[in-house]
Amino acid sequence: MSTVLLIGTLDTKGPETAYLRDQVKRLNCNTLVLDSGILGEAVGIEADFSRATVAEAAGTTIDALRNAGSRGKAVEGMLAGVRKIALELIEQKQIHGAVALGGAEGSVLAAAAMKEMPIGFPKLIVSPIASGHRRFGPFVGTRDVMVMHSIVDILGLNPISRTVFDNAAAAIAGMAKAYYNRLIHVGEFVAYMRDHHSLLIGDPSAQYTLTTLGFDPTMPYKGVHTMSIKGRDMKTGIPGEREVNREEVQAMLDAVAQSQRPAIAATMLGNTTRPLMRVRPKVEAAGYDLVIFHANGVGGPAMEDLIRQGQFSAVLDYTLSEVAGQIAGGFHIGGATRLDAVAQTGVPQVIVPGCLDFIVFGARHEVPDQFRDRPQYYHNPEFTLVRLTADEQRAATRFLLDKLNQTTGPVRVVVPLGGGSVMDIEGGAFWQPELNRECWDMLKHGLKPGIAYHEIDAHINSDAFADAVLDELMKVLPAP
Q1: What sign does the CA torsion over 468, 471, 473, 476 have?
Q2: How confident is the model at residue 188, as a pLDDT?
Q3: Of 99, 81, 125, whose CA–CA distance to 33 is shortest?
Q4: Which CATH number fits domain 186-257: 3.90.660.10, 3.90.1280.20, 3.40.50.300, 3.90.640.10?
Q5: Which of 475, 341, 480, 324 has the alpha carbon at shortest distance from 412?
Q6: Exposed e or buried b for every residue in 427-438, given b needs 16+ CB within 10 A?
Q7: According to the model, what pLDDT value does residue 211 have?
Q8: Phi/psi at 177 (5° precision)
Q9: Contact, 115 vs 141, CB < 8 A?
Q10: Is 351 helix (H, G, I), strand (E, B) or coil?
Q11: Distance CA 107, CA 191 (A)
């Protein structure tokens, strides 16, 4: 059965966390409760991991944190304990989802753990500060954290809070059950029969094939949709057998095979959607998954986190708006470490200096005064694109050049001479061909030996350019 970890400051959110716990249990999930509070004692609920235990996990004591000198220092100390316990529970496969009710402090404490949890592991924060007037970065980071607006503050149970908490319980319970079911892929068929049919088949320490375990995926169906699997009943310990649905088992095995396909990371914006749409089916036909990240200041860093974890066989960095943002500002700031992960890990990469000519702001009236005299592009009612100055584009190119010259693996640079964004085209608002030529020459003559450099006389969104990039990508890919 799946288990959900509930994280809360139980001195102030005890009854509310207890209600959420009970709702999760009613949905047939086990629960564990972690108290992340610092002052006071738990109210209306008993924690499985007390605040004293959490403090000890952080290498300190709850009394030491209470006397840390400031609330901020105390919270920082507690963060480490929450994170350590939660991640250990995931590693030990003892929990299959995590949920937290919290205001500012409680949300920060829960997010400290959730931002480190694996992608795909269910994680949900319910908070009154999860609204459009707050930045979500501190609570989401580069992970798939679900954030639910509680509407009311988390103090007391009332018709509104109960409605929100009921939905939160249903969401985390459903996700946890789905995640738990995916875990049966570990050990594949043996675990499937154990968890779904209470039947022990084979010895987990021995080597088996599906056929020797009784399931032959190559056998024609011929109208037969069930198979009889023999083993030992987990309750009685005596030999037994179960009828299993062949389609269900095959779907599980297909999912396993799909999850084991090698993957290629890529970056994209609306500006570069068309070529990535052209490249993707061809990459998949070659035996790879193409995992595309939105280059919006979070997508690039998220990609880099996963590169460091060894998730990708290669990288197609097609959209470098986060480099432009790092130099000139706006929303899409990738940080000073953008492009470092590939350089340090040696993962093969193809670089396209796309979208290196603009930065992104909100609606037109929100563009800061110092940028208003520049060429602009009305992308949609919520986003305005602003042209980089010549000095900024040169600086962005130097940033890229420096990063590429630090790489340890295969690198191929492909430059679109016809322009690198929707507006960077003859007649477009951002078209400055002389400046582009200067920047491309900087790359061409500044790259260290061993880095392949190619110029294509086409626009970045043209089929001809996309096909040329794909050709270069295929040259650096290992066999799938």
Answers
A1: negative
A2: 58
A3: 99
A4: 3.90.640.10
A5: 475
A6: ebbbbbeebbee
A7: 46
A8: -65, -40
A9: yes
A10: strand
A11: 35
Q: Is 305 helix (H, G, I), strand (E, B) or coil?
A: helix
**What is the DSSP code string of 157-206?**
--HHHHHHHHHHHHHHHHHHHHHHHHGGGTTHHHHHHHHHH-EE-S-TTS
The string of DSSP codes covering 210-256 is: TTTTT--TTS--TT--EEEEEEEETTT-SEEEEEEEHHHHHHHHHHH
Tell me how far apart the alpha carbons of residues 68 and 55 are, in angstroms, rounded to a whole number: 12
The pLDDT value recorded for residue 275 is 96
Residues of each domain in the chain carrying CATH 3.90.640.10: 186-257
What's the pLDDT tens digit per position in 247-260? 776 666 666 555 56
pLDDT of residue 341: 96
pLDDT at 291: 93
Residue 313 has a CB neighbour count (10 Å cut-off) of 19
- The one-letter amino acid at 14: G
pLDDT reported for residue 318: 97
Residue 426 token pair? 């003859």
Q: pTM score > 0.70 for this model?
A: yes
Which residues in the chain show pLDDT less than 70? 132-134, 182-191, 201-227, 246, 249-260, 479-480
CA-to-CA distance for 225 and 247, rounded, in angstroms? Answer: 7
Question: Does the 262-476 domain belong in CATH 1.10.287.180?
Answer: no
Q: Are 29 and 51 in contact (CB under 8 A)?
A: no
Does residue 129 contact residue 117 with C-beta atoms inside 8 Å? no
Per DSSP, the three-state class of 123 is strand
Contact by Cβ (8 Å): 265, 303: yes
Q: Which residues pair with 97 in a beta bridge?
A: 4
Give start-end residues of each CATH 3.40.50.12030 domain in the chain: 262-476
Nearest-CA neighbor of 354 among 290, 421, 403?
421
User: Could you tell me which of 421, 436, 315, 404 has the C-alpha nearest to residue 360?
Assistant: 421
pLDDT number for residue 114: 94
Select 3-184's CATH number: 3.30.420.40, 2.60.40.10, 3.40.50.12020, 2.40.160.100: 3.40.50.12020
The answer to whether 349 and 315 are in contact (CB under 8 A) is yes
Q: Which residues of 140-176 are buried (b: 16+ CB within 10 A; e: fewer)?
A: bbbbebbbbebeeebeeeeeebeebbeebbebbbebb
Handedness of CA 340, 344, 345, 349 (dihedral sign): positive
